[in-house]
Amino acid sequence: MTEQTARGGNADILTQFTPKLVSALHEGYGFDRLKADALAGLTVAIVALPLSMAIAIASGATPAAGLFTAIVGGFFVSALGGSRYQIGGPAGAFIVLIAATIDQHGFDGLLLATLIAGALLIAIGLLRLGTYIRYIPHPVLVGFTTGIAIIIFASQIRDLLGLTLPGKEPAALLPKLEALIGALGTLNPAALALSLLTIGIILGLKRIRPRWPGLLIAVAATAALVFLLKLSVETIGTRFGGIPSALPAPHWPGFTRDKLIAILPAALSIAALGGIESLLSAVVADGMTGRRHRSNMELVAQGVANMASSLFGGICVTGTIARTATNVRAGGVTPVAGMLHALFILLFMLIAAPLATYIPLAALAGVLAVVSWNMAEKAAFAAILKHSRADAVVLLATFLLVMFEDLMVGIGVGVVLGSLIFMHRMAQVVTVEAGMEAASEEDEADTGVAGQHNGDVFHYKISGPLFFGASTQVITVLDRIGSYPERIVLDLSGVPFADSSAAVALKAVIDKAKHHGAIVEISGATLAVRRVLLHEGIREPLVAFRNA
């Protein structure tokens, strides 16, 4: 490696781990950019404010925990992130995972799991593994998001209808639905009316005034009705006692060795889901703006944000697609917009915390009902079922496992099934063309072998990726030689890459040909393919290599 190459590699690494905020400020930051970022940050804060509280409540945490997450986690996601437009905060995709973690390990267990997940995300980013997290098949993503959307909606039925359950609401979907059906007799008409009013305001404003903050208007209007009409419904005040008017002091979650081991699976799930969600959100922002994010720096930022969020009593934080898209549409141009969004939410806590006491939980449930409807990829789900049987299997497996088993199990099984289908499809792409021709004097001179047997040359042209999934198909064709000719030419000019499994299988064929006295020549192999073949023992004098 030359000194220049080394410098280039170091510069590339330095670029990968430079926050986009630094790049944006280096370009120059004036009043016009600050004005655009401030307006975008305020717009996103208005959207994030009710969502953060609603997601936290649905997750089994307090509304304050959702606000702490949006403030602390959201600030670090933007300040250190690898995307100019990413907005961080609590996400609907985490609701099931957070609720299960709190149910099993308590809120302190969730804080510890989030802290460890943050450290894992930092390690993944520093190891530059961010690219691999994005290799998730589309049917898996559709099945996952649709399954999560249904679970989120089911988790809101209680507050949508104002039901009173005799005990704790079950976490699993089917027992939850059974308990809710059994409690229908306790339906609160006022809560139902507020839920429907919230949904109506959000959908109505989206149609007639799409630029207005429908979520905040709906929540504020229903809170005003609760205050003025003294409605007998559950509110943030009656269930949680309100929200604090300042951030708490940071504190380290207590843990023991046994507790650390117990919450490790949850931490791994949080890290995996957080990495996937944040990079997907960054990709969406790239598509809307034409920019490119730095995936590894983004993961490092997500890790720092999760650790900081847990220290301040917040829940899991990740990049959120809806809020990031809102930031782009609102005209945000640098990460300062995301940092200001966090500060605006903090300002709300400092000034208007007492007003949150009157926010009805039915209204926040209505907000999440709309979110779950928008989250479900209905058109993509139907299209996959209609057009591809193999992809439909992956989709349904992911969808059903997410709903009835576990979201990380659903993703894992979906990725494995998708990978197997992909390998099968790639194996079908590989072709082998065979033909016999008489050896010329020039060919005999090239190899230094005088005519033996019948002097014929058997040509094989292999096209496509030569990997373990295709090796059986290729070797079967090569093994069909009846009587061996003088020479066998394997043309690998159409092979973009080869793996060790295919090379081992190919060596077995070459050994067999040598045993029958044939000379094997490999032509057209790229340098990368030749390295794999040589590593597995396919070398001279066993084989004569020739350039294409």
TrEMBL record:
InterPro entries named in the record: SLC26A/SulP_dom, SLC26A/SulP_fam, STAS_dom, STAS_dom_sf
SUPFAM superfamilies in the record: SpoIIaa-like
Major place of residence: membrane
Localization per record: Membrane
Annotated ranges, domain STAS: 460-548
GO CC terms, sorted: membrane
Membrane topology qualifier: Multi-pass membrane protein
The entry's keywords: Membrane, Transmembrane, Transmembrane helix
Gene3D superfamilies cross-referenced by the UniProt entry: STAS domain
Domain of life: Bacteria
One Gene Ontology term from the biological process aspect of the record: transmembrane transport
TM annotation in the entry: 38-58, 64-80, 87-103, 109-127, 139-157, 177-203, 215-233, 260-284, 304-322, 342-371, 392-422
UniProt-recorded name of the protein: SulP family sulfate transporter
Organism of derivation: Bosea vaviloviae
